[in-house]
């Protein structure tokens, strides 16, 4: 990772792929467990259990319905299953972003890099390499982890599915493959790829934009010390980046979830028309409020934990 100190990666110390994967996994466990209740409410509003009426409920009504169904524990129901999906996704995502960013900054594209704005940071702010690396990270992580996401969505769309554990995840995957083939696990991959590329690009690009400008100003004012983000700045920038990417790409997320539940029996055009018939454009943003409320602490804690863990790993290796 580029940058210095806890707020800027590993501070110039060498890190390997395993370090990035481990830091990404820790990031996923901490951040997703923290926001698990909002994730449950979001999924309830996006895919419901069986009817469109349930999906049209607002944030508070959906929250009350979950509490009435199983108490406070219902808000964390399925978190273990969710982590089985999120941990590898976040690990691959963060790792791929850092690897792509390093490759682009080291001149992977040769002399053409500067011409198209993909050179290393030497100008006024981060180059397009951050956004390109972010898009690539989203695509790679989606390709690797999409089957887990499909199975988890199918579980949550069933009554009581959220309370089923990891064994149910494996059993559901086996049933789907036996009945419909492996291809069924990738139904909805197109809108997922279309949504993840800009979403990851906006997330990483926005964070890096905020971080780079802050560190540049700090370096100019105090040239004697290695610039680094404070914990509050890392949390704030992560939250802002998550909010921007989630708000801009949410309709594609809704479309992806509905395609997973429908099993690909309905085409994209027909699915969009059906969603619009449920409640107009508002239906494409069903669950956006809990999603944004969720993504702010999730992204903030996610990036903060990732960079702090990577920093700790690199320092531990140096000390040893």
Verbal overview:
The protein has 12 helices and no strands. It has helices at 17-34, 36-47, 52-55, 59-70, 79-105, 112-115, 129-156, 166-180, 189-221, 231-262, 268-279, 288-319. The longest helix is centred in the middle third of the chain and has 33 residues, at 189-221. It is mainly alpha-helical.
In short:
The protein has 320 residues and is mainly α. Helix content is 72%, strand content 0%.
Total E-strand runs: 0
Distance between the termini: 20 Å
Radius of gyration: 20 Å
**Roughly what fraction of the amino acids lie in strands?**
under 5%
Helix % is over 70%
- H/E element sequence: HHHHHHHHHHHH
- Mean of the pLDDT scores? 78
How would you characterize the largest beta sheet?
none
Low-confidence blocks of residues: 1-8, 110-126
Please give the count of helices.
12
Shape: globular
Protein structure class: mainly alpha
Give the SSE layout.
Elements: H1 17-34, H2 36-47, H3 52-55, H4 59-70, H5 79-105, H6 112-115, H7 129-156, H8 166-180, H9 189-221, H10 231-262, H11 268-279, H12 288-319
Keywords:
single chain; 320 residues; mainly alpha; 0% strand; globular; disordered N terminus
